[in-house]
């Protein structure tokens, strides 16, 4: 398995294709396999990099690692691009991954050529954030009661991505994501949602950046995407599907983001 040591941990990565470099950052579950279908569609024109975030799937949990932060996750992504000689890259982040991509733009601008931010759960800008947190908490608690972290992952992913997407996942990817429950609920969840760069930091972003929303996603994601596009002074893009269009509408997603990956 290809891996590289960055920031005191080993990161598994998947690299394919030739051309300008593009980094894909996964959200909850943290697995490079989220983007297998999208990477296959882009590899004829781009060098596509995806990776298992620290403590997820094939990237081992560092010794003594009990908590994380947006800054740590962005540092990992920047170090990975640098170690592989792929900076500056276009960056696509989904969900939590979009938060990390946003922090890359703010904290590591030299490694980012352009960026597409798909539905970052920035609850700090949501008016009914308490209701959203309560809804997610109820899903996770029910899963924990039914069967521990693995059952909670399944219920959370069914809530976030839809039953059909979950049931049609490649079996290996699904099993790895189930095994990531302790990282998701024990280390990650709750650490990223409060993130909110100040207006000056957002105004200082110079790389071409777009906010992206899926047509079938919950209303609070539309609220966040609208806020983000306004504060970045950029266009709000739309794509078919759910919170995980890489699963249900990969071809349409690629058509939507491709012009910005080459920016």
Description:
The chain has 263 residues and is of the alpha/beta class. It has a single domain (3-125, 194-261), classed as Rossmann fold (3-Layer(aba) Sandwich), CATH 3.40.50.1820. 47% of the residues lie in helices and 17% in strands. It has helices spanning 36-42, 70-83, 96-107, 129-161, 163-167, 171-179, 181-188, 199-203, 219-232, 245-248, 250-261, and strands at residues 3-6, 9-16, 21-25, 47-51, 89-94, 112-118, 209-214, 236-239. Strand 1 and strand 2 (9-16) form a beta hairpin. Helix 1 crosses helix 11 and helix 4 (129-161) packs antiparallel against helix 7. The longest helix has 33 residues, at 129-161.
- The first-level CATH class name: Alpha Beta
Head-to-tail CA distance between termini: 31 Å
Return the CATH architecture.
3-Layer(aba) Sandwich
Give the % helix: 40-55%
Main beta sheet: 8 strands, mixed
Mean pLDDT score: 97
Number of domains: 1
Strand content: 15-25%
Output the radius of gyration. Answer: 17 Å
Q: Which fold name fills CATH's third level, the topology? A: Rossmann fold
Number of strands: 8
Indicate the low-confidence ranges by residue numbers.
Answer: none
Order of helices and strands: EEEHEHEHEHHHHHEHEHH
Strand order within the widest sheet? Answer: 1-2-4-3-5-6-7-8
Shape: globular
CATH superfamily annotation: Alpha/Beta hydrolase fold, catalytic domain
């Amino acid at each position: 398995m290809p891996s590289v040591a960055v920031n005191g941990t080993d990161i598994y990565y998947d690299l394919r294709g030739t051309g300008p470099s593009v980094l894909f950052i996964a959200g909850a579950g943290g697995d490079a396999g989220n983007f297998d279908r999208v990477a296959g569609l882009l590899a004829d024109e781009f060098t596509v990099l995806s990776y298992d975030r620290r403590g997820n799937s094939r990237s081992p949990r560092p010794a003594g690692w009990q908590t994380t932060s947006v800054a740590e996750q962005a540092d990992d992504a920047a170090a990975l691009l640098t170690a592989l000689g792929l900076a500056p890259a276009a960056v696509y982040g989904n969900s939590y991954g979009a938060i990390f991509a946003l922090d890359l733009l703010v904290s590591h601008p030299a490694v980012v050529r352009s960026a597409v931010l798909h539905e970052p759960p920035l609850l700090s800008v949501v008016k009914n954030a308490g209701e959203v947190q309560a809804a997610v908490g109820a899903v996770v608690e029910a899963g924990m009661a039914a069967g521990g972290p693995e059952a909670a992952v399944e219920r959370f992913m069914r809530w976030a991505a839809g039953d059909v997407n979950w049931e049609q996942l490649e079996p290996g990817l699904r099993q790895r994501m189930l095994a990531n429950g302790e990282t998701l609920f024990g280390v990650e969840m709750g650490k990223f949602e409060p993130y909110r760069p100040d207006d000056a930091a957002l105004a200082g972003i110079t790389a071409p950046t777009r906010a992206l929303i899926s047509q079938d996603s919950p209303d609070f994601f539309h609220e966040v995407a609208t806020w983000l596009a306004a504060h970045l002074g950029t266009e709000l893009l739309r794509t078919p599907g759910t919170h995980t269009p890489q699963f249900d509408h990969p071809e349409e997603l690629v058509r939507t983001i491709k012009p910005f990956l080459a920016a």
